[in-house]
Amino acid sequence: MKRRSLALAAAVLALFVSAARADEWPAHPVRIVNTFAAGGAADILARIAADALSTAFHQQFVVETRAGAGGIIGVQSVLNTPPDGDNFVITNVSLLALDPTTKPRLGFDPVRDLVNIAYIAGSPVVLSVNAASGPATLAEFLARARTAEKPLTYSSSGIGSMGQLVAELFARKAGVRFELIPYKGASQGLADLVGGHIAFSAQTVSSTAAMLKAGTLVGLAETGNARMADFPKIPTFAELGYPDVASTVWFSLSAPAGLSPAIVAKVNRAIATGMAAPAAQQRARELGFVAEPMTVEAFNALVVHETARWKPIIEELGLVEK
Fold first, then answer.
1. If residue 181 lies in a helix (H) or strand (E), which one and from where to where?
2. Which long-range contacts (CB under 8 A, 24 or more apart) does 265-269 make?
């Protein structure tokens, strides 16, 4: 009985200590690791989030780039730190939901080793074609695919990326065949699309935004739940009869597992408030992203859902690393 009382007292004390630390946090500058290339969309979103957190907590949140291995290096650099609120990391749909299937030796479990705090913003995947020689509608595109002697070639942001998964899922739903041409970067694939060397691209609106706005590329359909305000002429796959293709390439904020729930809740609210601000909304739209608030619970449910959703498709395509 006495042992139980001591254990209960220790648990209560731990809760009080955790709450006290949360009240004092942050007492000094906080690091946010950007896991992707400096100057890219993830970096810009990281800085928007850092500004929101700096404003909310009257403390400096500093973005530090640790890119490489598709973001894995940056995540691992944060996993080696204590869960004290001093270190956060930019994650995304690939790191949290796709990589656990494609990379069995990933080196960490996104659900066990991380606390996934906030959804920052997401960009739909757009099926785009060369404006000079491509079809004008998705129906025309499918007619061309069905009569072509060989599968239509396309680019994505990489093997195992959301762009590839979306393209292949759409191909199965539409009863056509595509062939991915692997490129080292998204920009190379887009350059070949403009040059007429491939038939289409399945990349994020954020990657293709400049070419779409310039009229170099035509977006035939995008995977968002609704048309984007800055690209109102691009229909969604759902409204064209392919609701199963709906998806988003999202970026998020995570931290080492064990972070105080009170700090997690505070950061989630601050991100939601900051990303709802008109300036942040406008900047996200300019990048081809949609910023929307999401609770911690809703975001973690999304991670679980997306992992389960894409796992069988990844396995069917043979994208699991040996």
1. none
2. 265/296, 266/22, 266/25, 266/56, 266/57, 267/53, 267/88, 267/117, 267/118, 268/117, 268/118, 268/295, 268/296, 268/299
Please state whether 107 falls in left (phi above 0), alpha (psi between -120 and 50) or beta: left
Dihedral sign, Cα of residue 121, residue 127, residue 132, residue 137:
negative
Please give the single-letter amino acid code of residue 200. F
17-58 per-position pLDDT tens digit: 445 456 789 999 999 999 999 998 899 999 999 999 999 999
Q: What is the pTM of this model?
A: 0.90
Domains and their CATH numbers in the chain: 29-122+250-316 (3.40.190.150), 125-245 (3.40.190.10)
The residues that bridge with 87 in the sheet, in sequence order, are 31
Amino acid at 97: A
Token pair recorded at residue 180: 């991915």
Interacting residues of 164 by C-beta distance below 8 A, sequence separation 6+: 156, 158, 180, 202, 317, 319
Answer whether residue 145 shows pLDDT above 60: yes
Residue 67 contacts by C-beta under 8 Å, 6 or more apart in sequence?
34, 35, 36, 37, 38, 73, 74
Helix count and strand count (H, E) for the chain: 12, 10
Chain position carrying tokens 């350059």:
191
Q: How far apart are CA 189 and CA 182, in angstroms?
A: 8
